[in-house]
Amino acid sequence: MKTVTLALQGGGSHGAFTWGVLDRLLEDERLAVEAVSATSAGAINGALLACGMSQGGRAAARDLLARFWWHVAEVARFSPLQPTPLDRATTRWGLCFSPLYQWGDMLLRLFSPMQINPWGINPLRSVLRAVIDFGCLKRADGIRLYVSATNVRSGKVRIFDPEEISEDVIVAATTLPHLFPAVRIAGDYFWDGGYVANPAIYPLVRHCRSGEVVIVQVNPLGTRTIPATSDSILHRINEISFNASVMREMHALAFIAALHDRGWIDAQAGVKKTHIHMIHAEELMMDLHASSKFNAEGPFLDLLFEAGRASAESWLDEHYDDIGTRSTIDVNEVYL
Predict the structure, then answer these.
(1) The three-state (H, E, C) secondary structure of the chain, written as one string
(2) Which residues contact 321 (CB under 8 A, 6 or more apart)?
(3) Torsion angle of alpha carbons 21, 24, 25, 31, nearest 10°?
(4) In terms of pTM, does the model score above 0.90?
């Protein structure tokens, strides 16, 4: 059996892709997961994985992941935020022609979440409580979960250790500042971790025995066209900024790997060589409209789930023998 660590990105409902990836990896008993570093939707998937494994192993983890995403789809059935026929014809699961999406986008550009929602009501809390036993998650002694959030005051990343994980931490890691008020934890206020770590690779390198990091890449690195509208420009800026932190960490890891390869770092130095792997569906993600991150209808989540399973299947078939031996992506080419 080979042991890996997982780095799970955020991406709203696109996190269903990660659900599919995890479902396929859990199915393969040749693979064990030591730890997860995650933020935003990745933090939810990571919590579901860790909690399920603690409760009943692989089958329980797969069941818990499915229950959460099916619950999300069921809630979305009764939401007024639905794709219009024009969306279905032109935007690949987007919502940009939805009257509610347009109205909400305009409203949130004029007023802050604190003005619109001073009580800080976040419907995600009820969905999480319906599925995750946070007490069980804190007692979990299997997969270690590290969750990143953005400290609003300092602008720094806050990496919550496994024993600190709570409902507030998961909600904070998913809180987009233009949608919900910042979450207060121990006197500080936090937003979505994707702005400063999407996700943080450091805890996997620093605190784990395994030197194998598998990044589940949800946000597309590239784009097919140059954005021309104000909306598409804003969304592309978000994609770039949400990938920037990973690129910086990849630069450091690539430098350390080069030092290892030249024999300038030995085993006694306490700095292990890290192999980087990636599971992604770049072509699919580039084709999806940015507003599709808010689309949680069942058929769309199913499409992402199947894409995740297929991508993980392809990665296992092609690279399982490489785990523990070498990186299966060219870090310089992909990230630098």
Answers:
(1) CEEEEEEECCCHHHHHHHHHHHHHHHHCCCEEEEEEEECCHHHHHHHHHHHHHHHHHHHHHHHHHHHHHHHHHHHHHCCCCCCCHHHHHHCCCCCCCCHHHHHHHHHHHHCCHHHHCCCCCCCHHHHHHHHCCHHHHHHCCCCEEEEEEEECCCCCEEEECHHHCCHHHHHHHCCCCCCCCCEEECCEEEEEHHHCCCCCCHHHHHHCCCCEEEEEECCCCCCCCCCCCHHHHHHHHHHHHHHHHHHHHHHHHHHHHHHHHCCCCCHHHCCCCCEEEEEECHHHHHHCCHHHHHCCCHHHHHHHHHHHHHHHHHHHHHHHHHCCCCCCCCHHHHHC
(2) none
(3) -160
(4) yes
Report residue 202 as tokens.
């450091």
Q: Per the structure block, which two tokens stand in for 137?
A: 């998650």
Q: What is the pLDDT of residues 243-275, one digit of tens each?
A: 888 888 887 777 877 777 777 776 555 667 789
Q: What is the pLDDT of residues 56-66, one digit of tens each?
A: 899 999 999 99
For residue 64, what are its two tokens?
């818990």
The residue whose two tokens read 């509208």 is 229
Residue pLDDT, tens place only, 107-131: 777 777 778 777 777 888 988 998 9
- Alpha-carbon separation of residue 232 from 153, 209, 229, 272, 296 (angstroms): 28, 42, 5, 41, 21
First to last CA, the chain: 32
Which of these, 15, 122, 27, lies nearest to 313 by C-alpha position? 27
